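tool_call: predict_structure(chain=1)
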Amino acid sequence: MSAPDESAARIDGPWLHRSVHAGNGMFHVVEAGEGPLVLLLHGFPQFWWTWRRQLVTLPAAGYRVVAADLRGYGASDKPPRGYDLPTVAGNVAGLIRALGETCAIVVGHDWGGLVAWTMGVMDPKVVRRLVTVSAPHPLRLRQAMLSEPLGQLKASGHFLGFQLPLLPERRLTADGAARVGRLLEEWAGPGWPDEETSRTYRDVFRIPTVAHCALEYHRWFVRSQPRPDGVRYRRLMRSEIEMPTLQMHGALDTCTLPRTAQGSSRYVAAPYRWRLIEGVGHFPHEERPEVFDAELLGWLDDPEPDR
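tool_result:
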């Protein structure tokens, strides 16, 4: 079975595909609507298409919406290095400026959420509001993995498996990326994804070098822990978040446990809102988009979001 090329990530719809140079690389982005900028950041093992429903509902509500392929994914650049959270966060902050904006509402899911948390500390002036989905604060995630061997560490077993060289990439892309489909099913609530959705993610994950780049995020997170760069990152992330923050999580998430995510509030000094969405797993914005969008838009429309 031949691997697809980057055109597989350029799916048509009521949006515009663009290539935007920011920092030291190029981002493939999808854009729709006019108004205040909302930047959407996907997680593993997905790409911008995870936000396809929000690319319709948010523009209808008066927002300019941009969904980006993170570095190494989809049709964005795939350099050999630079998958640490500080570097990726800095490049995404540069993307906001390259889009002609000084700041944006940043919404991140999974790894996109870890990037968003990092941006909130590193580049607070470019983050107008912060929304994280299925993504604990990075320090809370680390703490839970170290202190709960039968809880978050067990749920994050894929993190450890991904530390091996080469073999994880081969396993993820074998048989038409069948394991990617299994991960989606295992982490989601009942009934998601359907075959077409699963096939789309499997196909795009098979674009050459995507699997390797995606795993480099996981490898940095684990391997940097004892290194000076990891120590510097943890010290940096102790700074409190100073912009209004909404954190949403699926009650059935088996990849990132809800109790792990909920402990993130200690790192937020600004107005903070926690929402647990019942009946869904790791992908609430896809599994129950109508509930997710109602929560998001209600919070965005609130000029003084509650704690």
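agent: The chain has a mean pLDDT of 96. Proceeding to next step.
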